[in-house]
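Worked example (supplementary).
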Amino acid sequence: MDRFLFAGGFKRRVLVIDDEFINRELLGNMLAEHYEVVYAENGQEALEKLQGDESDISLILLDLLMPVMDGFTFIEKIQENEILKRIPIIVMTSEKEAEVKSIKLGAADFITKPYDMPEVILARCERIIHLSEDNIIIKSTEKDHVTGLFTRDYFFEYIKRIEAHRKAPADVLVFNIDRFHLVNEMYGRTVGNTVLMRVADTLGEVLKDIAIIACRPEADTFYVYCDHIEDYSPLINEIQDKFINSSGSAKIRLRSGIYLNADAETDIEIRFDRAKTACDKIRGDFTASVSYYSKDLHLRSIYQERLIKDIDQAIENGDLKVYDITDVKPKLRSAEALIRWVHPELGIVHPGDFIPLFESNGLIQKVDNYVWSKAAQQIKEWKEKFGRSISVSVNVSRIDIFDPALKEKLRKIIESNGLDEKELMLEITESAYADNAGSLTEVTNSLRESGFKIEMDDFGAGYSSLNMITTIPIDVLKLDMGFVRKMEENDKNLKLVEIILDIAKFLDVPVVAEGVETKAQLDMLKCMGCQIIQGYYFSKPVPADEFEKFIVQENG
Amino acid sequence: MLTIDKLNEYGANTAEGVARCMGNEALYLRLASTVADQPEFAKLNDFIASGDLNSAFEAAHALKGVLANLSITPLYEKVCEITELLRARTDTDYSPLLSEIGSLKDELKRLIDSE
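After joint prediction of all chains, the assembly is encoded as:
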């Protein structure tokens, strides 16, 4: 660092205040090689220079006994000025008592008279300037200017120092404001900053008895290092209440992740990463405001990291298998491609373990692209082998919808396999609608105009909106298997399925009932007019070669 | 003209004084040449004569600092002596000490002015 600070002929300025010409000359001669030296004959002249053009002084060397204004008065005057008081002062004196008084008044150090050898004086000057500059830099960077909490690096550094002496158990807390980016976008940065300040104030008030140090490591996240307590429920509730009251809105919500009695042997940053993992786990879950880090969560996050690391290899090695499940209409006409991951070491990885994970980090696009290509190749092979077209449905994840290159990617796959667009059926889910209804409508319209068929998958699994099926242009509605399973439980559930089928009929959209497992379910659905059925009752998902048996059977 | 040899003969610790000047003999001699003309010598006499021991102390103290930094030992020692007496505002006859200081200063002045 020093290399850069002293580079380019840059010299810091030192102000020498002494009424004796000989003393000024001696010091000037010692300092001139390393510093630009400015002189004053007494405290008054020095003050005038500092308040004028000579304000960029890095160090003051001060004599005490001087006419007009002596050294002590000068120190007192300079201490009254917020900016000038940051300049370190080295007092030059031959009096022991004066040394103590100067340090008490605010001097950084003293040099005895007669002067030490020049090397000693230069070393002391350099040390004081560095200490002072380091101090100024620390003061201006250790705190977050918005909330007054520490910044990330200082926070961790201070905890390391605290833990060198403190052996008592500690808890690691992470807080995050749900959907904070919307606050900034909708109300502007000033309101956003006010919200951040309120969070900091609320945490400070409620956690005051246990909090040791806190920081804001990034935009809407807060870290707090606390004395260990067993039960955070009352405090978390109090934080929520106070925060909602002070922000005047229940729409802004704080999520928290807590690593109780965090293992002090583990690096402090990793401990906070773990609490953050717990905090992220309840992102979007409006029923939970706190989540605790646990061994299970730890194992799960390690497992997920492994899946993230291995997905490229899995695609390359063909460990991702595309299975097919039939849609049974009066005749077999289509299939749905489902993904299976047979990991060489972990065994079968359930789609529920990797699909939501990859949806959250964007890796799902790789998986989707792979499935689209495989499914298209399959359609082509079956066409060549059996002389008939069996269309295959593939998933188009939320993130694909917002990919500007989506249509181009699909078009290339279709073209390279010599297919018609309608043969690769595109399944979208209602969650994409909740994210951005406008974009979804636009993208589906555009895909349909190009000839693709759009299927609404898992309809009814999440927060379905009737508005959605009337605004999104779709070709097929796939009824979530949850409806089929609950259908037999009571009349209310049965009636719900009937209503959905009626609406679909009114909109002239065919419905596929998913997850049909029994003859009774099949009969009920048929009775209500649902003609396309999918489920274990007919077939479980099977590899392509097994699926071909259905085609052969029908052809035969 | 003052030289290192003359100052050594006078009793100054020139090695120490030159070291404080970062080895710059010319600077040392230039500064030492101004010592005899320091106005504090006259002030010291005047303030003592008028009984203003506070101001006399300040003048003595200032001289002491300069002489110490240049290691003009004989003058420094006498000025130290008078500084300590003045610091305590001692009620005494300062004339013998002032006379000694005057003689040492004059001797230095002669060294400066001599060829």
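Two points are worth noting when inspecting this output. The first strand of chain A starts at residue 13 and ends at 17. Chain A has a mean pLDDT of 86.
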